[in-house]
Amino acid sequence: MKTILLLITLIFSGLAVSSCTNDEGDSEFEHLNPEEEQQMALKTKQENVN
Prior knowledge:
The protein has 50 residues and is an all-alpha fold. Helices cover 68% and strands 0% of the residues. The protein contains two helices and no strands.
């Protein structure tokens, strides 16, 4: 019984891990320099104030 439960757990955890991958191929990270980052922060602050 424990062996069956262990196998079921391994199968479900394998499915969970394999479904969480990003298959799109491109990275989701944007490389910002400090000036762009500061401008975005100011823009966000202004939107929150309004």
